[in-house]
Fold this protein.
Amino acid sequence: MSTYKFYEQVNKNFDKAAVYTRFDKGLLAQIKICNTVYHVTFPVRRDDGRIDVIEGWRVEHSQHKLPTKGGIRYSHKVDEDETMALAALMSYKCALVDVPFGGAKGGVKISTRDYSESELERITRRYTYELIKKGFIGPGVDVPAPDYGTGAREMGWILDTYRQMKDDINAEGCVTGKPIQQGGIRGRTEATGRGVYFGIREACNIKEDMKALGLETGVEGKTFVVQGLGNVGYHAAKYLTEAGAKMVGVAEMEGSIYDEDGIDLEKLVQFRKETGSIIGFGGSKELPNRSDALIAECDILIPAALESQITGDNAHAVKAKIIAEAANGPTTSDAHEILKERGALILPDTYLNAGGVVVSYFEWLKDIQHVRYGRMSKRYDETSYKKILKVIEGLSDRKFTEEELGDLAKGADEYDLVDSGLEETMITAYQQIVDIRREHNLTDLRTAAFINAINKIGIMYEQMGIFP
Ligand code: NAD
């Protein structure tokens, strides 16, 4: 286990920012603390008949807005401290991107590789049952989502278990990140990585910041390294590559690879599927240590695995000028100081990986509205656009081809609307943080992000008062 106390790290960042806010000590303490911590153990029968005792948590950090929201993590490293830290980060994240939820997080202490699919299903269903029994799940109470080690499959099992036990017309809103057929939303799987891309793009578009780093503006032509090619890391890499950036290094469980000529993402994923490893891929060279990609030459470093990866031990050696925190808590506070001293631009996790919860919010809205986005308007918009194009044709000698008409008159479908909502949110949130950085004359986006989140939550508390 890490020697870093993750929750303490989050609170250090909170305290650093709190001095720039006007709230009194008591209110700040209320914002900071975890409201409810639920620790559960339960037995699960293995395929061979043995019984394992499984440990899990659900932490609701802040109930100032309901439901609370946050992913469920499956990892052998899960513990109470980590779940509390991740729940707290969720509260600040939701506030930053104006998603009206309190923060929560769940964790089950298992290594998914040690269990078969049917064992994982039994664990997930039993964990859900425990959450239901204690009122830690429900569309208006607490809404889980995927995190490290979980995905749409687990969310589907959670919904099914909830539906078996509850007569709730809004049951589909009890969890997000579900398969589409079970009330999921198009664009959720890639949302976090896509949001990471939007965030990096926004940062790279700010001239003064790029100038200070000695870099050109824009994503195109920049080199990047990813740690963790899972859901978030893969999608972030995909969209960055599509925008013209070059992936030069990757770190995974089995080690690190580097190729200054660029690594083909899709081919690497295929190679890893076939061989079980990234080592030996194409013309890439294997680096001596597992995490060496973190200190490899590149413009943008994207830690997208777990917390406490960039620490006081390796921060001095990090060469990237932009640290894009796709994972939660990848940089410890001492590492943060070292990187800042070196003049690096750190795009903080609370902002950068918020795309997942933004699209989860859209999914939850869809579920409680019981209607797919675009269903009412797509055809209407198409007809209207076609009418406008006909008028243009009438006013000019331009005749649109069928293909052009199809393209120009396309009504927005669910994916288009979700993607545009996500993009807008990431742009607005970045602008807010940059404005706060300027207002307080800070050099640090993490502190600016925390100030913004604390202000929003603090004002909420002030307006609603404290229930006697
Ligand atoms: P995931 O399980 O899909 O992928 C994680 C990847 O990291 C795996 O491929 C794993 O092998 C790799 N990995 C683990 N330890 C590593 C190490 N020491 N070195 C190199 N690689 C390592 O998980 P994910 O959903 O992509 O989550 C990754 C991070 O992003 C976590 O911090 C999570 O909290 C955060 N996050 C996820 C979401 C989401 O929507 N999934 C949203 C916000 C934040």
Summary: The chain has 16 helices and twelve strands. The longest helix spans residues 414-439. The domain at 191-352 is CATH 3.40.50.720 (Rossmann fold). Residues 203 and 425 are 14 Å apart (CA to CA).
